[in-house]
Design goal:
Number of helices: 16
Helix content: 25-40%
Strand order of the largest sheet: 5-6-7-3-8-9
Low-confidence stretches: none
Strand content: 15-25%
Structural class: alpha/beta
Number of strands: 17
Distance between the termini: 50 Å
Mean pLDDT: 84
Largest sheet: 6 strands, mixed
């Protein structure tokens, strides 16, 4: 396989924010370049631009030099226009509105083996509508579409999103073993650690006034180690040069004062006066050089989000929120859970897990529907953010409308909170549709805080958060004094936030702890 050189890659959002400038990378067989960084730093935009600049021309502009190669793209969220197409049409149509492409339909054994690798039955799936598939099944179908075709380069945007734990492990092995070069955006630390051999880190520094990108050839752990060493060295250099300048300034100040005093006393001694004037001139020259002496700058890196929920939100531990007995869950004729009992009280943090397609999201929506909104302030965060956040309404307008309050004081409160979540004013006033997946999660987290919700219903809330934001969000949810009812495959989330953990297994809701 020939090397793939990406050169002259520069990209700027039309609001002025620069993502990368003159970036160059060379990829060989088996190479995995991971793009990391905070939400809103342009990771998905950069990936879309590499794939097809027409996808970003409405809001970004740039240059690129990429050879004429076949590029496959796994989207972070499947285009909703596919929803009314069958799985068969999705797999064997290159893009929407194109005719079926039977070139890839010939090797049926390969197709069946790829389906089997993802624990899907081709015969059961091909006539299903995309809209009937779970989030995890949609990710698997995108993977299958990539693997049954032959591409020279794969672009993957959050390729483990919505997958259950077993599927994530299989996906990780497939990704590591696949020889096709890849450029990957991911928040999954374990995936980055196991697969990456190149890192592109996008950051906003200097109080979010400047973008910086760092390109590193090596593993993620090696990158973190070098980054930490660089910061430590820069901090030592800053302290050393600052002390040196302060020491020199102090010495020159004392010399200046002494010579000035001697000059005042040498008024009647012209010879001594000339010597002292020469000495003063030398001191002033040193002082000018001192003014120009640069102190090594302190390490500048992107800060963690700073968000806290209102301590006034607190439910009594024994306040019953749901108490369901002998329930059945089904979609049409399809039974997802035969019979289940579910009891849920105040301050309890519940996590529901299970295989893809088991019915977790359907169950969560059903439980959410049954919570009494007259007794509790309930806030729902769906797996598909487009259910709540879409269109050209601005972030400020959306949050003001949700609060039914457009006063200056409320807008100021909203802007302060969004600032704590790393939103710039341009982004606050920008359209919801222009936000990244991670930024949309942050908008919904802001809404939780603003509404002072006491019951949270969360469907995979951490799936699009960066490795920097995710630990902070887990921490604030762990300390939340209200109730949480959630679905998650995130092992860290289950471990840190889940007090009661359930799994859907063999059409039964089983309590694990």
């Amino acid at each position: 396989m020939q090397e793939i050189k990406i050169g002259n890659l520069s990209l700027r959002i039309r609001n002025g924010k620069e993502i990368v400038r003159d970036f160059t990378a060379v990829l060989h067989a088996g190479d995995k370049l991971f793009i990391i960084g905070e939400e809103g730093n342009g990771k998905t935009t950069l990936l879309k631009f590499i794939y097809d600049s027409h996808l970003t021309e409405r809001y970004a502009e740039g240059t690129k030099r990429i050879p004429d190669i076949r590029i496959g793209y796994l989207e972070q969220q499947l285009d909703p226009l596919w929803e009314n197409h069958t799985v068969f049409e999705f797999l064997f149509t290159h893009r929407l509105y194109e005719n079926l492409d039977y070139e890839f339909y010939r090797d049926w054994k390969k197709i069946e083996s790829v389906f089997a690798a993802f624990q899907l039955q081709e015969s059961e799936m091909e006539n299903r509508l995309i809209r009937s598939c779970s989030g995890g099944e949609k990710v698997k179908l995108q993977w299958i579409k990539l693997l049954i075709r032959k591409y020279d380069l794969l672009l993957l945007d959050e390729p483990t999103n919505d997958l259950d734990a077993e599927s994530v492990q299989k996906m990780e092995r497939i990704l590591c073993d696949e020889p096709t070069p890849m450029i990957v955006v991911s928040h999954d630390e374990s995936l980055i650690r196991s697969a990456a051999n190149q890192i592109l880190h996008l950051e906003q520094i200097k109080d979010k006034t400047e973008m910086r990108f760092t390109y590193f050839k090596g593993s993620y752990d090696a990158y973190l180690s070098r980054r930490s060493a660089d910061f430590a060295r820069q901090k030592r250099d800053h302290v050393r040069t600052k002390r040196e300048k302060e020491s020199l300034a102090d010495r020159l100040s004392r010399q200046h004062q002494l010579v000035e005093n001697d000059l005042n006393r040498a008024v009647r001694d012209p010879v001594q006066g000339r010597l002292l004037a020469k000495k003063m001139k030398n001191i002033k020259a040193q002082e000018k050089r001192l003014e120009k002496m640069e102190i090594t700058s302190q390490p500048d890196f992107e800060q963690d989000i700073s968000l806290f929920f209102d301590d006034a939100v607190e439910l009594h531990p024994k306040m019953k929120i749901l108490d369901l007995r002998g329930q059945t869950l089904q979609i049409g004729d399809r039974v997802l859970i035969e019979t289940y009992d579910f009891s849920f009280s105040g301050r309890t943090h519940v996590v529901i897990t299970g295989d893809n397609g088991a019915g977790k999201t359907t169950l969560l929506k059903e439980l959410y529907r049954r919570i009494d909104r007259t007794r509790f302030r309930v806030q729902y965060v769906p797996q598909n953010y487009g259910e709540l956040l879409s269109g050209q309404m601005s972030v400020l307008e959306y949050l003001s409308e949700e609060l039914a309050d457009s006063s200056k004081e409320t807008r100021r409160q909203i802007m302060t909170l969004l600032g704590c979540l790393h939103f710039e004013e341009k982004e606050m006033r920008g359209a919801l549709s222009d936000l990244s997946g991670g930024q949309k999660v942050k908008v919904l987290i802001a809404l939780i805080a603003l509404k002072k919700a006491d019951v949270l219903v969360l469907d995979e809330i951490t799936r699009n958060l960066s490795p920097l934001s995710e630990p902070r969000v887990r921490a604030i949810l762990k300390d939340f004094k209200g109730a949480i009812l959630s679905v998650s495959h995130d092992r860290k989330f289950i471990e840190e936030v889940g007090e009661q953990v359930y799994a859907i297994r063999m059409r039964k809701l089983v309590r694990l702890r």
